[in-house]
Amino acid sequence: CSVTCGKGIQKRLLTCAEKDVAGKHKELVPKRCQLVQKPDVQLERECNLAACPRLVTHTVTNSARARWYSSPWSQCTVVCGGGVQARSVQCLAHGMPSSGCLLHQKPAMSQACNTNFCPEPEKKDVPCKDYFNWCYLVPQHGVCNHKLYGKQCCKSCSQSNL
Length: 162
Prior knowledge:
Blueprint: E1 7-11, E2 17-19, E3 25-27, E4 44-48, E5 67-70, E6 83-86, E7 89-93, E8 96-97, E9 110-113, H1 137-140, H2 147-152, H3 154-160
Antiparallel strand pairs: 1-4, 2-3, 5-7, 6-9, 7-8
């Protein structure tokens, strides 16, 4: 909830994802879900917490001045590659919304997160085998580094490197 007491807003994020072969959710770029119909879900709703405490005094003291209050950071929008976290920030005085806070002191409402590079997708192992009966000659002539011979005679070349 965006507030610690009283009436606030709960938000949730809808992201593009799929389950990988291990059953884990893998987040995708939004473009990958362009042709997929978005589920009909509510992304925002009101939340009502216990009433905020009210001060009984009639005079406003410096300690009861309006202050900025922020909710916890939301979950990052991505697991890697650079995402965003958001939070709600409110100016409150006596637990009630106020306009008495200084704007230059307002805490950030968003921040970068998970800025590490995403790991490269695992490459499937191509079976290493010889495609020709003359492949035993390739390592003997030292041409395993040749683009064609190295690939076509993978088994003979890999055995010669041992």
